[in-house]
Amino acid sequence: MKRISFVLAAAAVVVSLAGINHGALAQIGPGDGAGTGAGTGPKRGAGKMRKMDPERMLKRMEANLGLSAEQKEKIRPILQEEIQEMQAIRNDTTLTRVQKREKMQEMRDRYHARIGEQLTAEQRQKADDMRKKAKERWEKRKNRVKECPKQTNDMK
């Protein structure tokens, strides 16, 4: 009888440890933890979204488009204004998610055009190509999410 109790107690400990380990792994998101297994290790763009920073955006534009100092000074206030407007849209509780998305897209188009006015024809073409590639990546990622079946309670 003692032996059966001991085996049951040991089995309960193993099951509970497995549950704790499973829960701990579920807490680790992309880019968290170490290792090379699926869902671990650093990934570009994974995890928490960074706060939009006009200086970081300008550096990226400078690196990709070769902005001059004069162009940077003209584009900086446009980016700052864009970020403020984007934040206002995000914080507007009267809008639905779809309405926010539509307003954001309109806003991005408007600011893209304003920034494009400060670029040379070659830079503008490169910026348009970069934007097109980013949209394709977004669509690809969005479609991949749609294809994945949602996890239900019976799958957990």
Explain how this protein is built.
- It is a single chain.
- By secondary structure, the chain is mostly helical.
- It has a domain at 54-145.
- The chain is built from five helices and no strands.
- Helix 2 (54-65) packs across helix 3 (69-91) and helix 3 (69-91) runs antiparallel to helix 4.
Q: pLDDT under 50 segments (min length 5)?
A: 21-41
* Helical fraction: 55-70%
Based on secondary structure, the structural category is: mainly alpha
What is the total tally of β strands?
0
Over the alpha carbons, how many angstroms does the gyration radius reach?
Answer: 24 Å
Average of per-residue pLDDT values? 76
Largest sheet: none
Our estimate of the beta-strand percent is: under 5%
Distance between the termini: 35 Å
In DSSP terms (H or I, runs of 4 or more residues), the helix count works out at: 5
Give me the strand/helix succession: HHHHH
Shape: elongated
Keywords: Signal
Biased composition (Basic and acidic residues): 123-156
Region (Disordered): 27-51, 113-156
Biased composition (Gly residues): 30-44
Task: Using brief descriptors, characterize the structure shown.
mainly alpha; 5 helices; 156 residues
